[in-house]
Amino acid sequence: MEKLKVLKRGAESIIYEGYFLGYRAIFKERRSKPYRDPSLDKKINTERTMMEAHFIYNALKIGVNTPAIFYIDKESNTLVLEYIDGVTVRETDCKDEVTRKMGEYIALLHMHGIAHGDVNPNNFIVNEKGELFLIDFGLAKRTDDIEDFGTDIEVFYRSLETMKPDVRDKLISTFMEGYSDVAGKERAFSVLDAARRIRSRGRYVSREERKKYVFDYEDD
């Protein structure tokens, strides 16, 4: 294993780029917390590393493109993952077919009882062939709670708030079309309704914004 450079330092992990057995790879190393008892810290980080690997494997199994897992180093709590040569969706012009596929991927996870936990354009990568990959399952969890699925949609909506309103609304609408194609309109509306309730609890939402947030599903 050869780590060449740091790509990102987060509160929970450090992301490196490097090589594994001659293949270009991403290394995701969970960071120790100095305020925790060392044995407890080791136990927590190992469990979270293995859980993330479990969700990546299950996502692949149900048809969601994710980077392949090359190796799991339990000693350093590091996941060694396939390097996806591409750009994040945030760096693209967000074509409809890509945004729709994003919605399909999240619906697939939800239909199999998995909430991703951090649905945003930076966690979707488009490679040079136009294939879409979903990354970063560090906050994923097993659940059947509709509000957990609604939270995924709300997190995605909030991640688009810096965009122009017309661009944002088009993206979320196309995303939900893809979601509905997989989960069905009734399920999609239920998840959207949960997302709307979550958003309403967070701050005041005007009547017009509430109407916009259901994306005309009520009229179908």
Structural class of the helix and strand makeup? alpha+beta
Q: What average pLDDT do the residues reach?
A: 89
The percentage helix is 40-55%
Strands, total number: 10
Helix count from the secondary structure assignment: 6
What string, H for helix and E for strand, traces the elements in order? EEEHEEEHEEEEHHHH
Largest sheet: 5 strands, antiparallel
| Strand proportion | 15-25%
Mass-distribution shape? globular
End-to-end Cα distance, whole Å, is 54 Å
Radius of gyration: 18 Å
Widest sheet, order of strands: 1-2-3-5-4
The number of distinct structural domains comes to: 2
CATH class designation of the largest domain: Mainly Alpha
How would you characterize this protein structure?
This protein is α+β, with helices and mostly antiparallel strands. The chain has two domains: 5-82, Phosphorylase Kinase, domain 1 (2-Layer Sandwich), CATH 3.30.200; 86-201, Orthogonal Bundle (Transferase(Phosphotransferase), domain 1), CATH 1.10.510.10. Helices cover 45% and strands 22% of the residues. It has a five-stranded antiparallel beta sheet with strand order 1-2-3-5-4, with helices on one face. A hairpin with a 4-residue loop joins strand 4 (69-73) and strand 5 (78-82). The longest helix is centred in the N-terminal third of the chain and has 24 residues, at 38-61. The chain is globular. The N and C termini lie far apart (54 Å). The model is unreliable at 203-220 (pLDDT under 50). It is an enzyme of class 2 (transferase). Residues 1-220 form the Protein kinase domain. Keywords: ATP-binding, Kinase, Nucleotide-binding, Serine/threonine-protein kinase, Transferase, tRNA processing.
